[in-house]
Amino acid sequence: MSDRMVETCRHPPVTIFQAIGELRTLLSEDTISTDDEDLLAHGYSEWSTINIAQLPVAVAYPKSTAEVSQIAQVCHKYQVPMIPYSGGSSLEANFSAPHGGISIDFAYMDQIVQLHEEDMDVVVQPSVQWMQLNDQIKDSGLFLPVDPGPSAKIGGMVGTNCSGTNAVRYGTMKDWVINLTVVLADGTVIKTRRRPRKSSAGYNLTGLFVGSEGTLGIVTEITLKLAVIPQETSVAVVTFPTIRDAAAAAAKIMRAGVPVAAMELMDDVQMSVVNRAGATVKVWKEVPTLFFKFSGTTAGVQDNIRMVRAIAEAHKSGDFEFAKDAQEQKKLWSARKESLWSMMALRKPGQELWSTDVAVPLSRLPDIIEKSKKELDDLGLFASILGHIGDGNFHESILYDNSNPKERDAVEKCVGDMVDRALEMDGTCTVCPNPFLASPSEHHFPSLTFPAPFPTASCLQPFSLHPFPTTISLPPLSQPHPPYSPFTQLNPLPTRASTASALAKKAPWSKSSAQRR
Ligand SMILES: Cc1cc2nc3c(=O)[nH]c(=O)nc-3n(C[C@H](O)[C@H](O)[C@H](O)COP(=O)(O)OP(=O)(O)OC[C@H]3O[C@@H](n4cnc5c(N)ncnc54)[C@H](O)[C@@H]3O)c2cc1C
């Protein structure tokens, strides 16, 4: 474990223990865990750049929507925050518990409820892992094309509105969710829609919950659209002399309308990580590289390859190599999917991984990537760039020594400059509190701060499903607060500023933005 400080809730309100007691009576004793290891696993993530000096006070393991509703009713009664937890693979403290509370893990809700082959949809519980789902339904000729971290589960994928390497062709999670069964903060169970793919009747409640990070409701059942497994798939790897050439070729391919199934960028360092990890038999050139996936009919795939080859050549591409068989295709793609873990495996003792996530309009990609790569190289640390380049999205991964203030400050400045640059280009980032509200002058990095001036009144609270309608100070139980409505979450909950100052006292790495600059 990292030397970052992680604590259980120091002074949890006594009401949480009443809630735990009541839940143990209502459900079975083993539905609620307060085991230290369990709390750590549900409030701290080794691969998250961001971690909070606080853990949940308990973890609940419900077995049904009815049990989730009972948990929510008790938490509502005692005003205990709830934090849904599925695969735990999210990278930005999404499931952390800054106010303690109860983490709700769906480990026992992992069933494929119904596959409707003819309708091309499937009903699942939140703890179904996407890769297992695809494996189990492959004989139907259908698959879910959204592919985030290999261990992600459907509940969390809905929570984050995740994407993946296939997003350039198939879109993100929001495009694949038909309806949701949701338990609201007071235990009310709702279903957002029925099963037809198309409906414009009423509010788009499904869209409201997808991407709400567990702050508006707890998703207990999901109906997903499925796509037809393509007739043919081919994977090609193309090298470029510079990262700018690779990014420019990628932007051109998108603009030309070539329907690539995936298009991923890896820089020279990341290619060396693939080689070092021994992911494939072949040793790849350690230069900027684009990975392509082509899929469709045999004729369509050949046509797409021809067009991509022509554009790549116009951008000084080198080798254009194909995976030799389905096995190598799989290995190559999983090397890309698991690159984060490959990077982490190369950490030296005491090193931490800082991973970033920015996206810019497609035409600005070559500019931002070239400049960011130069600044990354200038750090003199082990640092790489890779990206879902077809969506204008890329990540930097930097290994650094968190106990060395000089090194940490240099990394922080490098990341800060990149994020500023992205925002100046009308881009976005997920390492700022609210990518929609942030501007270059007000963005912050939660990994270092839960910081200061931030208009909480106009944004959602991205941490926990909180039964408090307006404020963190608990009303006496004799004065019940107004009934929950999802929209009360729009009111100011505990502000980031107050969270920040509380954390600043505890977390040595928590500094204000002004201090950083
Ligand atoms: C190697 C690696 C590669 C990755 N690649 C990508 C990528 O390409 N694209 C991408 O988008 N992400 C990627 N991720 C991040 C991660 O896989 C996604 O964010 C994924 O959607 C998280 O799913 P999870 O089940 O792990 O969710 P968790 O981490 O458990 O939870 C994520 C969020 O959803 C909420 N939540 C969980 N379950 C529920 C529920 N039942 N109801 C309501 N809210 C819920 C949680 O409270 C939390 O806010 C990657 C991660 C790793 C480790």
How would you characterize this protein structure?
32% of the residues lie in helices and 18% in strands. With 517 residues, it is of the alpha+beta class. It folds into 4 domains: 103 residues, Uridine Diphospho-n-acetylenolpyruvylglucosamine Reductase, domain 2 (2-Layer Sandwich), CATH 3.30.43; 117 residues, Uridine Diphospho-n-acetylenolpyruvylglucosamine Reductase, domain 3; 170 residues, Vanillyl-alcohol Oxidase, Chain A, domain 3 (3-Layer(aba) Sandwich), CATH 3.40.462.10; 50 residues, no CATH class. Strands 12, 13, 14, 15, 16, 17, 18, 19 and 20 form a 9-stranded antiparallel beta sheet that branches. The protein has a 5-stranded antiparallel beta sheet with strand order 5-6-10-8-9. A hairpin with a 5-residue loop joins strand 8 and strand 9. Helix 1 packs antiparallel against helix 3, helix 8 runs antiparallel to helix 13 and helix 13 runs antiparallel to helix 14. The longest helix has 20 residues. It is globular. Flavin-adenine dinucleotide binds next to strand 3, helix 5, strand 10 and helix 12.
